[in-house]
Records
---
Amino acid sequence: MTISAALERIAPSRTTAMTDRALELREAGRDIISLSVGEPDFATPDHVIAAAKAALDAGDTKYTAVPGSARMRAAAALHFERDLGIPVPPRQVIVSAGGKQAIFHALLATLNPGDEVLIPAPWWVSYPEIVRFAGATVVPIGTTPAGGYRITAAQLEAGITPRTRWLLLNSPGNPTGATYPADELKALGAVLARHPEVMVLSDDIYAPLRYTPGAHATLAVECPDLADRILTVSGVSKSHAMTGFRIGVAAGPEWLIQAMGRLQSHSSGNPSSISQAAAIAAFEGPQDFLVSWRERFRTRRDRVVSAINAIPGLYTPTPDGAFYCMIDAAPLLDRFGDDEALCLHLLEHGVAVVAASAFGGQDGFRISFAADEAKLEEAVRRIAAALA
Ligand code: GLU
């Protein structure tokens, strides 16, 4: 037996690979601070844990409907309307094992060989791999720190061909924190209006983690005329510190939600019943703690940005959202060869980070600042010592 041609086209996730490596080293007794994975360090809220326990005690341990239970889909619809401003009936919502699975199903359900997918770079590691797994072609749209890592309407127009099927937008974005204001989304929407065959996947998983003043802007709200070809992805992993529960939600046109459900019925079936109970509590329960969590992330961001920029050879812009810094280390790369070697050197000095090349970037690395303040301070101290 050999592996399939589809699998040959993709590499393992480099964010999860680095995290696994850091765990292995820790288990072997090494002192490693992992800033590799994007995972809030806060404890999952008590009312969410209580709901998961209650579901277990109530024997809520059986299959549910594949796209999520009726109550779960209603709670997800509530989230889309209340938190993102996207009014959507439950039948236009699907619940999956993490946002990652929803994205995987959406792209696999719609792409054919030869199709093109536009992805602003730097990108989240899994986007291009999923596109390649589906047999389609990744078309990167380059962005720069000076441009806030955001694509322009002119770049979008130039990237679209008769083969373009999707634009993937992630705002606030992983790994750069790029956050699109409403007027820029409207400008992108004006281009998309001229290309009715292009769908948009708007990954809004980091919407609660936005540090720029003003409300979160999302394409389905700014360009309601395009709503029938936008899939908006969200979840509880990042907002409610529930990464291990594996619950992501997506809202979009009914035909697409049904197509994703068809695939999900054969890949995993329903998302975990216990996790659904926890996610219902997350969406229906109190949301006020999110404000204080965001403020803690903002404080960490500000400290990390100034500490990193004080290290000779490193530079990071201040991210507008999410909890990552994309750090340029170009002046130091001669010493190491490439960004991967630089990351291995940092790992030797006790800090796990992910090379920029994993994200379609170059000459640097990404850190997650979703770690507690003492760990962040020590990690930056180790990075400075390793590069001195
Ligand atoms: N999205 C997170 C990250 O980029 C989680 C890990 C992953 O699935 O890639 O670190």
---
Amino acid sequence: MLDLKQSVQYIKGVGPNRAALLNKLGIFTLEDLITYFPRTYEDRDKPKKIIDVVDGEDNLIEAVAISNVTESRIRKNMTIYKLTVGDETGRCVITWFNQSYVKRLFKQGEKYKFYGKATNKLGRVEMKSPVFDEEGKNKNTGKIIPIYPLTYNLSQNAIRQAIENALQIVNGKLEETMPDYLIKAYNLLDRNTAIEQIHFPKDFENYENARKRLVFEELLTVQIALLGLKEQTENQAGIEFNKSIKISEMINSLPFKLTKAQLNVLEEIDNDMESKTPMNRLLQGDVGSGKTVVSIVAAYKAVKSGYQVAVMVPTAILATQHLEEFEKMLSKFNIKCELLLGGTRPKRRQEILEGLKNGEIDVLIGTHSLLVEDVEFKNLGLVVTDEQHRFGVRQRGNIVAKGLNPDVLVMTATPIPRTLALILYGDLDISIIDELPPNRKKIDTFAVNKSMEERVNNFIKKNIDEGRQVYVVCPLVEENEELNMKSVTEWTQNYKEKVFSNYRVEYLHGKMKQKDKDEIMQEFKDGKIDILVSTTVIEVGVNVPNASLMIVENAEHFGLAQLHQLRGRVGRGEYKSYCILKYNSLNPVSRERLKIMEETNDGFVIAQKDLELRGTGEFFGTKQHGLPDFKIANLFEDMPILKLVQGVAVKIKNEDPGLKKEENKRLLKLIDEKFSGRVEI
Ligand code: ADP
Ligand code: MG
């Protein structure tokens, strides 16, 4: 019997050392290994003419040896072997170092294939240390070679060999995971062939088919699971918030008029809250679109109906700021808000916990600190999580479990194209604020290089002299010579001592003590600091309307979505605002990205472009996005399959809600294994 759970260590060619390296990649079992998919492939199948060799890349050529191998000892431990080969389009000089065995291998006049890194400088073609085959042989060429995402010390060859051996153990005995009727209807490859061909595809058509099959399976299970989650909440009895509490009273008390988009969204939320089933709503809106106030109105409704509210945000700075805003708008209604952070002193913390339990506190705002077990509510009715891409689905579940089916409002400023949102957040209803408050001016954005430094500095001075404040964001806390980037502390020092010695400059980064961070942020808010140099800790949600200028150092190191968030820190008040993206060096892709920033202020456009340029993985950042981790699917490239699969999932759930039918047995098993405990179908 095939044991998929057997440890990788005992697979031929692995052993304890390599097993330890594989473990680092999350590969522990035979099954993990065969589902560790290539990152990309090298095509060693179709030779190029020498004239077409691409400079700086790996190339495959087929050419005749037109010299013997020459040998030259250039110093003690270095001997160079050279061979000139040619085809009808040109010549190529091939070089090996210290590999004396190549001397005997080539015969003038015979044809060979060579695969390796080549240069092509105005027709002068060279290749270094290629692998090769005699004509008609396919040992090192003539195939598509998988390239795996790797860790230090583990070579491509080693993992390739391990996977080859693993596939031999499997030897076509994998159980099918997709129902037969789906395989037939959608022309899917069977599982054994798919797994084999994704690693060692015979040709690109086979690769495409293997990939399609595996992406289909991956996305289908997630879709069905999300629909299951949604159904789970829909079938539960939630809180019916008091219909006689009119949110319009609260809305009329606000210092500004809500936009039409905000009002629409609030109507949806109000309906959800009054209905019997628990609300599970995603609130999307670009930076500065005014999401916070929407959650404050929802909190009003909940508290006035006799319930408590938990507001969970990703950073302490943001939590502190939210508390201020909530208090400003809710204290006149006699609603008591509190702040609980990781750093809250034990005595204070105890008081807060008691106030929560006896119901004195109506709204509790905090970070992950809210998830701790002894944080107990008297009657939690509404959970708001802000910037949800930072929390996992699971954490959302943990806070929700502190109430009895409370309503949930998830807010995110990561603008995800609607189609994608609909699918990824399949367990949530979606509301979108697609309009900014009036009088918001476009933030003028410029990408500039080093030569503009002095002009930029003068522009900073001009802004401060007009009474405004400035953010300077850099990617690093500490200096890093290798990357040739200055750090937060270096910039600060440079500013304080040289360029801006007449101004008040302070810095802020994530590694500082909470108390110090709060202090600096407060001083910046109070206008006591002119220039705040910071890492991206200020990325999310920080609101200082007097700040009118955002400078980003080494902007080429940031993702578009992130730059957009950073830019959103300015232009929040009445003042004309600017964003200057400084860069050191640009490749074509980063040039293109900064250009997009210059051209548009629309977060949704930016998100779409970012997806196109970089794919979803990087767009959402690493693990923290709260979306399922995909092993193979790429949500941008695979949009067509995603849409297809969404339809399939809905159909299956309608026809066989509990996946009880014999034909869906395999699906049920698959979802059980993947989401064990998390979703009940
Ligand atoms: P975000 O959606 O980025 O979280 P915020 O909720 O922080 O945006 O709102 C940004 C700023 O705009 C805040 O200062 C907020 O008070 C203000 N604001 C929100 N809605 C309106 C509105 N309708 N009119 C004017 N200002 C508004
Ligand atoms: Mg916000």
